[in-house]
Design goal:
single chain; 465 residues; alpha+beta; four-stranded antiparallel sheet; 15% strand
């Protein structure tokens, strides 16, 4: 039974478009209901207030016209007070009745209304029941609006039933409700149309995300939409492109890594088997052991670089930025690379605009390694000169390393800083990839281009400290 319930649960979930339409419909119903209730009370207050004003006007007019009549003549007054009024009266007041009482409270003219629960009215010209008129005078009888005017002969009581006012108000309210219902229906239909237009890009984006889930990155399309939805669609499209590039790079990485690791391993394995089987003798054994040691060192360096690159990509705690002086950093880098420069008879010149004042936040040791990788790469291809220039412009520290070598082949420029991308005389193909990873962790960027005079230019940019 529980498994059946779990299977049915997804079917009970409403789609987003239905949820939005339901939410809008309920909100619209709530707003219209509250508006209807408010209009009901506003109309009632308006009609009752207007009726009270009309009763006061009618009472004042009747009092003025009846004040000079003797008590015996008052029983001839028409009980429908509106017919005795010389001015036009509102439609709601056509049911106004007048009751005239003498000083003792006897009904001289008019008819007492029936008490609550009583079907017939008490006939006029009889002694009043004190409770009935008293309820009208003090407003206890909620069925009527009452206006009391004093006469020399007694009192003039005007009353009109509230039910007639309610009937007029309800008739008007029904018409307003019909108008509201028609308007609400039109708004709901419009909301269905608008919701569909808003949801369509989201549904399309869901399909593209399904492609991302299935790793079909190259098939992801850019969904055209406006506002925040367009921004999300653009981000998803760019993410898919980046994932596609990352997936391709990962495949190339494993292919290149296996190739780079296989070469020294084959050399080590071949010479070790040859020594074991007695193929090499005397000086050949020593030469084989030297090759094994050399290839083992190369293999160790390759694994170390691969491990460092993996840590730079994934671990946060190995990177500890501090404020570094750029001039001191360059001085140490030049000192460390100097033996290689001397062995290759190269001249390195350093030019720093701003001197020792230039500084940046970085992990000093790792940034030093990045500079050494770049200088080592430049010394490998330079003919005679390597130039280092550093300056601060618009809050950025710019550091460029230029050599006078043959330059970078155009085919290598787009992926120069990717893993295992190396030139003709390159070693592991990881040095520039490590440099880029370190520079980016320092918040900077590194680019490569060819100089118009020949040679390569590698440019670093960092935020100034």
């Amino acid at each position: 039974m529980s498994s059946l319930v779990r299977k049915m649960k997804p079917k009970l979930k409403l789609k987003l478009v239905h949820q939005m339409n339901l939410a809008f419909g309920l909100s619209l119903l709530f707003v219209l209901s509250v508006t209807g209730v408010m209009i009901h009370f506003v109309l009632m207050d308006h009609f009752i207030g207007k009726e009270q004003e009309d009763l006061q006007t009618l009472g004042a007019t009747l009092t003025a016209s009846m004040g000079h009549l003797p008590i015996t003549a008052l029983n001839a007054v028409n009980t429908e007070a509106a017919t005795a009024l010389p001015v036009q009266y509102t439609a709601a007041s056509t049911g106004v009745q007048a009751i005239v009482t003498d000083q003792l409270g006897n009904v001289v003219s008019g008819t007492l209304p029936a008490a609550e629960g009583q079907a017939t009215a008490i006939p006029g010209t009889i002694l009043t029941q004190a409770g009935s008129l008293q309820n009208l005078w003090d407003g206890s009888d909620r069925r009527y609006l009452v206006q009391v005017n004093a006469l020399p002969q007694g009192k003039l009581t005007l009353l009109t039933p509230v039910s007639k006012i309610k009937a007029i108000e309800q008739a008007l309210l029904k018409r307003l409700i019909l108008v509201f219902a028609a308007g609400g229906a039109m708004m709901f239909l419009l909301s269905l149309f608008i919701t569909k237009k808003l949801i369509e890009p989201l549904l399309s984006l869901r399909e593209e995300l399904k492609k991302v889930k299935k790793r079909r990155f190259s098939e992801v399309k850019l969904i055209r939409a406006g506002g925040e939805m367009g921004s999300v669609a653009q981000t998803v499209f760019e993410m898919a492109g980046e994932l596609e590039r990352f997936s391709r790079v990962q495949k190339q990485f494993f292919q290149n890594a296996s190739h780079e690791l296989k070469s020294p391993l084959m050399s080590i394995s071949g010479y070790a088997e040859g020594i074991r089987d007695g193929i090499f003798e005397g000086e050949g054994v020593r030469k084989g052991l030297d090759i094994i040691l050399s290839e083992s060192g190369r293999l160790r360096d390759l694994v170390t670089e691969m491990t460092l690159l993996a840590k730079l990509d994934s671990e946060e705690d190995i990177f500890r930025p501090v404020e570094c002086s750029l001039s001191e950093l360059l001085t140490e880098a030049v000192e460390r690379i100097n033996p290689l420069l001397v062995s290759r008879n190269l001249l390195l010149q350093t030019e720093i605009s701003g001197g020792s004042e230039l500084s940046l936040y970085a992990d000093r040791d790792k940034l030093l390694q990045a500079l050494l990788n770049v200088l080592s790469n430049a010394s490998r291809y330079a003919n005679k000169h390597i130039n280092i220039r550093a300056a601060e412009m618009k809050g950025l520290l710019t550091l460029s390393v230029t050599d006078d070598g043959p330059g970078i082949p155009q085919s290598l420029l787009p992926g120069l800083f990717h893993r295992f991308v190396k030139g003709k005389d390159g070693e592991s193909g990881l040095g520039l990839a490590i440099s880029r990873a370190i520079v980016e962790r320092c918040g900077g960027t590194v680019t490569a281009e060819n100089s118009l005079q020949g040679g390569a230019i590698l440019t670093f940019e960092f935020p100034a400290a």
